[in-house]
Amino acid sequence: MSVGIDEISFYTSGQYLDLKTLAQHQGIDPNKYYDGIGQEKMAMASLDEDVVTLAANAALPIVERVGTEAIAAVLFATETGIDQSKAAGVYVHRLLGLNSNCRVVELKQACYSATAAIQMACAMVARQPARPILVIASDVARYDLESPGEATQGCGAVAMLISANPRILEIAPEVGNHTEDVMDFWRPNYRTNALVDGKYSTKIYLKSLKRSWENFTEQSSTSYTDLDYFCYHLPFGKMAQKAHSHLARVNKSGQTPEELERQIEPTLIYNRAIGNSYTASMYIGLCSLLENSTEDLTDKRIGLFSYGSGCVAEFFTARVQAGYQQALLPHKHQALLENRKELSYEEYIELYHYANPTDGGEHRLPQQTQGRFRLAAISEHKREYISV
Ligand code: CAA
């Protein structure tokens, strides 16, 4: 029996900052961002958006198709948790009207946890093939102003239905892992912004790629040349280029820069316009590949590298299924990105400085999101989500 991704849908905020605007404010060459880090825009969550609303909006098209009764569990991956106790997925469960017999849990390990969720979902579906699992990855990436990470912020969520005999991708069971206790990127409970040792984090990312790949080749007979495309975790687009050159060198592939670029370029299109969305980032890249590739991907094999700082990394592979195009939502995703509002630098700063109230009073939030679900209020320390 094959198990894998039957549906994939993403959502991001309806507003963004163009990195040219940031460069202009900083008095630097915008090509540092457009070419140097490979990013053009970063999505900024509005006041009434967070990981719950982004997630519910991403999952809505899937639930509308399969119905609220079909989903056996929601595995919610995030590193922007809104509560130390309650899983964000429980709010999403109500917003989407899922069955009360559906189990919900939240998973954390920086940007990696969505991959853990996918592997757990595959194992659960292998045990009970008639019960599909909804995996959601949702994050808001924030760094300090004027820090090197500032240009690599963003936000987004991706929802994937994991089922038996999937229509989009069959996920192979062999994986390669690398885990190591390092401090490259972290966010203590008392901080809203991540702390990061930027250059070190890129080195650890590449080391983890090599180690995961080596472990993968011990587990699997798949070789580098068996793979047609590569999806990497995308903290910024240029990281995928660095990673793919690194993996090609490790495998002595002898490929030209053009050949290397061809194997990753379609994965970068959506993320270039969204920015980093941590757990969701690699899977929005996967969606970008499936929806933007100019060639028919049927039967093509994709290598995926998931990296979560701290760190846990995983290399695994998937095979594209015949007729996959019918299960995708390219028009919806492209319209979402095209119909966004561009922010001025002043509007960006105002949004950036907004802090959720912590005084326990009643605070109603202005309607800003273009999505179906919004955070309407924070009252007596409770978050109130509604459908609009
Ligand atoms: N035109 C074209 N290119 C230019 C340029 C210009 N005018 N000016 C600079 N560049 C190039 C530089 O040469 C450099 O290229 P290389 O990397 O190929 O050498 C690139 O632009 C970036 O320039 P800097 O090295 O000066 O950039 P920086 O130090 O200001 O910041 C960063 C880079 C450290 C990655 C920073 O963006 C950062 O800290 N980001 C957050 C951390 C991060 O994303 N880490 C990734 C690994 S960790 C992870 O993956 C988990 C996660 O999601 C966070």
Features:
388 residues; 9-stranded mixed β-sheet; 3-stranded mixed β-sheet; 12 helices; globular
Structure notes:
By secondary structure, the chain is an alpha+beta fold. The protein is built from twelve helices and 17 strands. The chain has helices spanning 19-26, 31-37, 51-66, 88-95, 113-127, 198-219, 237-250, 257-262, 269-274, 281-292, 330-338, 345-353, and strands at residues 3-11, 15-18, 41-43, 73-77, 103-107, 133-141, 154-164, 169-179, 185-186, 195-196, 229-232, 301-308, 312-320, 341-342, 362-364, 373-379, 382-387. The strands form four sheets. A nine-stranded mixed sheet has the order 5-4-6-7-1-8-13-12-11, with helices on both faces. The longest helix has 22 residues, at 198-219. The protein starts with a strand and ends with a strand. It binds acetoacetyl-coenzyme A. Acetoacetyl-coenzyme A binds at residues 29, 31-32, 35-37, 111, 148-149, 152, 184-185, 196, 198-199, 201-202, 205, 233, 235-236, 239, 276, 278, 307, 309. Acetoacetyl-coenzyme A binds next to helix 2 and helix 6.
N- to C-terminal distance:
40 Å
Which segments are poorly predicted (pLDDT under 50) over 5 or more consecutive residues?
A: none
DSSP strand content:
25-35%
The largest beta-sheet arranges its strands as 5-4-6-7-1-8-13-12-11
- Choose one word for the global shape: globular
The oligomeric state of the chains shown is: single chain
Q: How would you classify the helix and strand content by structural class? A: alpha+beta
On the 0 to 100 scale, the average pLDDT is 97
Reading the helices and strands in chain order gives EEHHEHEHEHEEEEEHEHHHHEEHEHEEE
Number of distinct beta strands: 17
State the helix count: 12
Biggest sheet architecture: 9 strands, mixed
Q: Any idea what the radius of gyration is?
A: 20 Å
Present as ligands are: acetoacetyl-coenzyme A
**Helix share of residues?**
25-40%
